[in-house]
Write a structure and sequence with these properties.
Elements lengths: L1 E7 L2 E7 L2 E5 L14 E9 L24 E7 L10 H17 L2 E7 L12 H17 L4 E5 L24 H13 L6 E3 L2 H8 L15 H4 E5 L7 H4 L10 H10 L5 E3 L6 H7 L3 H7 L4 E3 L4 H10 L1 H8 L4 E9 L1 E2 L4 E10 L12 E6 L6 E5 L12 E10 L7 E8 L23 E2 L4 E10 L15 E4 L9 E5 L2 E5 L5 E4 L1
Helix pairs in contact: 2-3, 9-11
Length: about 500
């Protein structure tokens, strides 16, 4: 047993910590692999009709994604043929068929609806017809939310990008009465657990009359503010990315950029580049990693515009973006109780570093899996309190640090441990293609969707029910220059101690 001596002023106490198994993991910093809800997208769009109701069908198969390891497709339904009439039942049935094809392929979509697809055709549907169409779509969106990553606001303007439009004000407007109505209809009909992405950040600030970015406390609360994200379909193009970062007084406003950089820690951001000039493409292609990192991109169209994406490929930047776009969870090390009793508890401490540009955004459960060894084939999944949406990007280290309850029906024996992060929807929860893979060597099991923690625990009725507690949120540092909010481990002259926020020191021998 390890003894930890606590010195707090003149008080001397002895704490007893349970023995633990400590495992260090090897990072995989370069492999491009599939992970749900992140990465490059391919766009599929079509002017649907009763006779041609599908967008996805005949365009995807079970091997879709190929060498690009893609798990997202951008799907755009063009309702040009019924701007002032109901969506035909055949099209709604085609939507259901398309969503099932996504499910069969193990992918999700960035979903958008529009009425026009050119700058010359600015005639979109009126707010009344948008409301009617969203009411028709509502049950179909709810039934297929499992394979919808995000919904882009759409409906207004050419390609649903809220710019070239006759019914919603001139192109430079962000909010007016009709646009406000469409946002209201979106919130009334899009499932509450799906984000709605808007082409311009000022649409959100003007609609809410709130220029303050989301805080950690406000995030993921299913409020309108917490559900409004971003998409930039002019990435790297011209001043302010063609109006993305424009304010009412500045075509490229640093305050708008900072707003987006802060917001996107908690709401998704993605899109495509639309640079069509070869000279501009040559100027801006190398800026992509820094821009995606700062504004936390989780997805990007891989084909449009090819002037930039082709330059990404020839330079190697394409693969760099493919590795880091979205989240990339690298387990650093783990500390686990070496024994536990049925109906007792065990300690689980895992350090996680997110090497991606963004966190994961949609709610996702995390489980500790105990799998029996030898002749013991029993399997137990124990829910953890960890929330991977809070594992911030660009190298930030987060912690799973919990005392978990062992079920009372666990048979005695040795169990191997795994980390499992499946989709929250029962329809695809047990499909390993929708589980999160950690960026570590020899950890992933593609058959189960489990990440091997490389540790075992002995379940025994004679084991202590209470394994003792561990300090929460410890950050290992050397020297004394790092400021952290929780306890930290200080190493001085080969001796380490835990420094608590209130100044107490736990010397460890």
């Amino acid at each position: 047993m390890k003894k930890v001596i606590c010195l707090a002023g003149m008080l001397l106490c002895v704490l007893i910590a349970a023995q633990a198994v400590v495992v260090t993991y090897t990072p995989d910093n370069t492999t491009i692999f599939k992970n749900p809800e992140r990465g490059y997208t391919e766009e599929l769009s079509y002017k649907v009709s009763a006779s041609h109701p599908n967008v996805v069908k005949n365009n995807l198969d079970a091997n879709w994604g190929g060498s690009n390891q893609m798990t997202l497709v951008m799907v755009l339904y063009n309702f040009n043929k019924f701007k002032a009439q109901d969506i035909p039942s055949e099209v709604l049935a085609g939507f259901e068929e398309d969503m099932q094809i996504l499910r069969n392929c193990g992918v999700k979509c960035v979903l958008r609806f529009a009425y026009t697809e050119s700058q010359s055709d600015k005639v979109d549907a009126t707010p009344e017809w948008v409301e009617r169409h969203l009411e028709q779509l509502k049950p179909h969106l709810a039934a297929n939310a499992d394979v919808i990553y995000v919904i882009e606001a759409g409906f207004i303007g050419s390609w649903g990008e809220w710019y070239y439009t006759t019914n919603y004000g001139n192109e430079s407007q962000h909010i007016n009465a009709n646009r406000r109505l469409v946002i209201q209809y979106l919130f009334e009909n899009v499932p509450e657990d799906r984000f709605i992405l808007f082409r311009y950040p000022m649409i959100k600030t003007e609609y809410l009359n709130d220029k303050n970015p989301l805080t950690a406390e406000e995030a993921f609360q299913n409020t309108q503010k917490a559900r409004m994200g971003c998409h930039n379909d002019a990435f790297l193009n011209n001043w302010g990315n063609d109006g993305t970062y424009a304010s009412n007084t500045n075509d490229d406003d640093p305050k708008v950029r900072q707003y987006v950089a802060t917001e996107t820690l908690y709401v998704p951001n993605g899109g495509e580049t639309n640079v069509e000039s070869n000279s501009l493409a040559e100027q801006v292609y190398s800026k992509a990693p820094a821009e995606m990192s700062e504004y936390h991109w989780s997805f990007c169209g891989k084909s449009y515009a090819t002037q930039v994406t082709s330059r990404w490929k020839s330079s190697g930047i394409y693969d760099t973006l493919n590795v880091h776009m979205g989240y990339r969870y690298n387990l650093i090390d783990g500390r686990f109780s070496d024994q536990a009793a049925p109906s007792g508890k065990m300690n689980v401490t895992i350090r996680v570093r997110n090497d991606g540009y963004a966190p994961i955004y949609n709610e996702r459960p995390v489980y500790l899996v105990l799998k029996g060894t030898g002749s013991n084939s029993s399997l137990h999944t124990i829910p953890l309190k960890a929330d991977p949406r809070r594992w911030l990007p660009n190298g930030v280290i987060s912690w799973i640090n919990e005392q978990v309850d062992i079920p009372n029906n666990v048979l005695e024996g040795t169990y191997h441990m795994y980390l499992w992060m499946p989709d929250k929807y029962e329809s695809i929860k047990n499909d390993p293609r929708y589980a999160v893979r950690c960026a570590n060597v020899n950890m992933w099991n593609a058959t189960t969707g489990y990440n091997d923690l490389g540790a075992t625990v002995i379940i025994s009725k004679s084991a202590p029910k209470d394994p003792g507690t561990l300090p929460e949120g410890i950050e290992e540092v050397t020297g004394d220059g790092l400021q952290v909010t929780g306890p930290k481990k200080i190493i001085e002259n080969g001796i380490f101690y835990i420094l608590m926020p209130d100044g107490r020191k736990y010397y460890c021998f």
